[in-house]
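Before the break, one more example. Copy the sequence into your notebook; we will annotate it together after we see the structure.
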Amino acid sequence: MKSLADTSTGPANSWELCSNSAIRRASRRLGQLYADVLAPSGLRATQFGLLTQIRTLGEPTLRTLADALVMDLSALGHTLKPLIRDGLVTLAPDPQDRRARRAHLTRKGLAAYARGVELWKEAQSRFDAQFGKKESAALRRALDLIASDEFAAGFTVQKIAAPKK
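Here is what the structure looks like once it is written out:
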């Protein structure tokens, strides 16, 4: 198997050899395609995804939301700011733990989510038509595995031998 360091047979595209590069490249393309479809809603694809996750989880704590999205709290806070500013999301203290805050969709947020869902259905339908419904489901399962704590734990315990000199 060719490696990134092997240039003897000519340059290869990094995404042909590196899973991270391939996933990031595909993610950028897919993000652009979904963003184009979602544009009439006034939401970015990342914002729609965040509204969807808040709605799916109910009224999650920020920690729960960040964990579900595989984000750190700082990045989540940055992503939430425009949604809070625009009145789509509010944050309130958790009644059981006043140190924690919970995310809530406002009426305006629920309306934005509802507008976005119809457009998202169109984007998802286009993806399934282009990629295949079974392949699409298999891809989501594979990506869910990669995003899991178990995968991360296994990845980080792998020992990599030092290069031979």
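The radius of gyration is 20 Å. Helices lie at 14-17, 19-38, 45-57, 62-69, 73-85, 107-131, 133-147, 149-157. Try to locate both features in your own notes.
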